[in-house]
């Protein structure tokens, strides 16, 4: 097992999908996301990212750049970004204009995380862009094209206006070693989707670090694994609250995506053994419990991965409990930093 020198200053950030819960409307979910961003800014979180998904009854973040403007307008210092924009769904020029506009409105606060997955089912992906598979193959070139659009010395006849000269920071998102090779070759920060695809986390981080080439944006490797967190006052309460998260991931396995349901007393009444095993495999890097429990497990994870920053997704049905989960995690990270400096 790899271990890394202890890092004393681990930043922590939020991934939010504007999750729609049972009984909620998309408008409710969007309002909660905006409110959560305001709250986590005060808690010391560094970033608030939203992710592009389509044709999912439980996620309202399909028009990601629009929602990022909604969040950035309500906050002051929080970095706001995509985790991510699925670039093969879009023209690089349009993304450059959208994020260039955001960066013009909110200077030095916008991040652009890019992925190559569809963020949806095959039929919807086809509806979004019939030539999508061709665009997937062009993903590395399209990332470079975006960098060119954002640069101040773009020599092309076509310019992103707004966008040119904004130098929006680009991050590469992935769940395999393919994305690690690209992030390393381009010298870009790397986000790994260990919150739902944990299997290749460590191999991908090794590839990224071993192959990293410094760039104008980044001198040395920077990794941000994404994890799930459900924090509460007690382990028992957190385990109960986490049943909503587990039911939501059941929907991924069974392809029956519905608004996130309330917690249940016994998951064995909800899933069978096959689904349970599949969900638990996906949720390997999920931290559920009291502050004490999570802090112990999290310290081991940070030492194992050498993470520079953590991004958390906290899928909790009750919105007030979701806020509390984020607050408890911020307290864990502040205490972690104090202990490492001691």
TrEMBL record:
Coiled coil: none annotated. It comes from the Bacteria. Residues 14-249 form the Luciferase-like domain. To bacterial alkanal monooxygenase alpha and beta chains. This is LLM class flavin-dependent oxidoreductase. It comes from Fodinibius salsisoli.
